[in-house]
Amino acid sequence: MENTKEKTKSFSFQRGFGQIQNKDLPAVRKELMKALGVTSRMSLNNYLNGKVIPKVPQAEAVETVFNRYGITDIWGES
Hints:
This protein is mainly α. Helices cover 60% and strands 0% of the residues. The protein has five helices and no strands. The radius of gyration is 12 Å and the shape is globular.
């Protein structure tokens, strides 16, 4: 069970999300949802918390979104 928990932490992007300025949060959420191909905040939160592991193109799209906001330390828990 511990191994699964550790793996989940590594696919979380809470670290990057925690660096977003409050004024940019709505736009970033919208961009991340589009990048991941999800339509609900619950689905976004599943990716955000590492409960769903992104496919490589999704992970690259997430990195692109964060990079637009000057954030490069993205993956892992905050």
